[in-house]
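Below is how a single chain appears once it has passed through the pipeline. First comes the sequence as given, then the structure the pipeline wrote out for it. We keep one example in the README because the format questions we get most often are answered faster by looking than by reading.
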Amino acid sequence: MSTDVPAGFELAAESETFESFVGPLYEKRDGDDYTCGFRAAPHHGNRRGVVHGGMLVTFADHTLGNMVWERFNDQPCATVTLNVDYLAGARTGDWIECTGHITRETRSLIFIKGQLTIEGQTVMTASGVWKKLGAD
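Resulting structure:
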């Protein structure tokens, strides 16, 4: 299994948070673009060697939440809803990336869509709503 990390990606800040236990996760910034990635390891999979859907949705929640956090100058936000569609399987050894874009913002809610890809092929889409904490 390859453990290579593509150029431009750096290890996400390590801490004793949930994300550090499901990783390692990596991130890349290019101007306003933000991408997260991870190399699927055996601990991300199920008995069939397929990456567990729970890992993929965790990864989407992490990435899209970081995008919301950064877009709004580190203002605390919380996931209200996150919907996903699984389109294809991911396997141990795959490099999986997540990107997204904010589609709408109200005074207290942020709407965002994202996708997980492997070598350019979409394996999962996600759409969610985040609430700005402390906002009416």
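The chain is about 20% helix and 40% strand.

See the next section for the split statistics.
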